[in-house]
């Protein structure tokens, strides 16, 4: 590990490459980041950590010119700048690689590297394909990867797409590269390849901002770590001065175990059983049981097919084969209405696009799933308001009126509205997909307490989550999915961070994961 | 421009108030052109000419709120007119012929909805196809001929008066009330708005999207059929080209009334004002002796202005 300042070549060491000073950004009434300080020196890896919704992405979008700060300033090379677009940031040597890569899947690697850039031209003014491919090859070679510059990006593995995105940043002569959760869909082996590339970059004086919630990774590659919580700057320290335990405490603001609530459980009869569920290209031969009063965790990497599986059980895209049994009876679920009638409700990961009708009021969102039940001859009853009020209270949706459009609420309150809508339908089986994503710590702990209460009431809960701590702390049992298949199942005692990660990535280190097939580059 | 835009933005008119203002100034202009315009008799008479467009606009409002559109209403009107006239000419008793027409109208709407919901095709493309299809069918079946030897009582639908009030105005008022109640007081109405604002979230909330859309497109078919019977009775002739181009008036009225073409917003009150404005304008242009081709031009301008104003109000509300 290097200390910042060590690798500064020449005379450029006096000032950081870029620096944010006292930056505040608000969206409507919601403060995303407040009075935050952050800097990046040439040749260092500076990790930015914090819980979902802590403001990491917002902060980096300010550096990337996507947002202008409401207060505070951004300096590049010691001089105040104000970018009005990512293009201007790029011209200043700053490139951002978002979590959802902004590549063009239908284009070739070489074309992707040159999209939006000055491309080499032939004498006749046409595009000089050979020059482009040559340049692309040089860039890829410099990264030490063996990739065909003419292949279509969508055919590449997730890891190679990530590399193309990095190469793309370097074609733009980036001196600072911001990586947002770059390993979220990579296997362990692919991740270590990526770390090798990051090391090479820093050796050449490129600074890297590394956003990740995988704390082991953060300690593995970063020189300094900055912690954000609820939009505030909490700490910036050298990686060697921190350990996982106190980093977590800084991130959540209290010892980890206090965040979660989970009472001892005694699961009852089987509420939901799935046998051999298959949907081509999404998941294959998935079987599991879920009991009343049980919280079953479903872990796995992004893209492992967990969301697809849950949505299929909910009738969004019905499975092609396999059986679903509710309370021991086989059921055919062809639509969400059908699933709801069987007592299944799915709380989607995509809160804003799938969970809520944003311009609708809190009341109208909560009652949307039960209109048919409460209506008389199709007419909306006067009691609709009270019904909604009851659920809003149960979930302690605070600081908002029932008539407020949900689009204006904080992430935490929005999530509570989605859950309220689900509970209004009184489901026996709840499928929760990343229920605490983008939710502040306070709301998070309330959602955990609610999940615990619901399990105590005898509801069966499937908890899909990419946050291992959440799964390990809340679930009675953990299922792991990898590439569409169940790759591990762990009872309360056996579920450890290591076991679960091994099953999720297909790595060889664990004992319980199948581990035969290590997914590499395609 | 930008200064004017900024100034306009600061004005917080409700859309309905603006429309009402437009309507009143139109009436004033009309009265200046022809002092008789403001007499109750003329006004009530005018109402005979907008009921057909008005009925269809009610259905169109709900469809546009869901983010859909139906371009086939004018053609469907011609098809129903032919169905009524020619089945009667072929020997079917007139009451049955009218019933048959209503069935044809609903069936045509249902036909649209099947393509839109089960094949998941965009309503614009589907109804553009059926726009041609229904019209072609109407021409083909009628052999471009007309039927007008209806029994005298058929005239009741389009030419009767209750005191000074034209019969179809009563039908329209009842239809406005019914659709208004459906949209604002029923779960169906809530679904219509939910689908228009976020169809995906509506699906995840268990909203029966297909059922709602089938009901909407079939429902507008029924409104079209009623309008067709009134129209045919009013002109006392059944022809294939009846209703030709009416979709323009219908859609203009709805958009002018404030429904966003992107879905999610729109009111029955706004649509009724839109219908009244377009009817007054059409009537006034006739009074002023503007040829029908230029009326079309002016209607086109109005539609563009309405779309622009909608965007403008929408942004202001955000």
From TrEMBL, chain A:
Listed Pfam families: ABC_tran (PF00005)
Chief site of localization: membrane
Cellular-component GO terms for this entry: plasma membrane
Region (Disordered): 503-522
Transmembrane regions: none
Molecular functions per Gene Ontology: ATP binding; ATP hydrolysis activity
Gene3D superfamilies reported for this sequence: P-loop containing nucleotide triphosphate hydrolases
Keywords: ATP-binding, Cell membrane, Membrane, Nucleotide-binding, Repeat, Sugar transport, Translocase, Transport
Topology within the bilayer: Peripheral membrane protein
Subcellular localization(s) per the UniProt record: Cell membrane
Occurrences of domain ABC transporter (ranges): 18-255, 259-508
SMART domains: AAA
The name this protein goes by in its record: Predicted L-rhamnose ABC transporter, ATP-binding component
Originating species: uncultured Rubrobacteraceae bacterium
Lineage, broadest ranks: Bacteria, Bacillati, Actinomycetota, Rubrobacteria, Rubrobacterales
Automatic annotation (TrEMBL), chain B:
UniProt superkingdom: Bacteria
Transmembrane regions listed in the UniProt entry: 17-37, 49-69, 89-111, 123-141, 161-183, 214-231, 251-278, 285-309
UniProt KW keywords: Cell inner membrane, Cell membrane, Membrane, Transmembrane, Transmembrane helix, Transport
Subcellular location(s) per record: Cell membrane
GO MF annotations in UniProt: transmembrane transporter activity
InterPro entries: ABC_transp_permease (IPR001851)
Principal location: membrane
The protein's name: Autoinducer 2 import system permease protein LsrD
One GO cellular component, as annotated: plasma membrane
Organism: uncultured Rubrobacteraceae bacterium
Any one Pfam family match given in the protein's UniProt record, by short name: BPD_transp_2
Membrane topology label: Multi-pass membrane protein
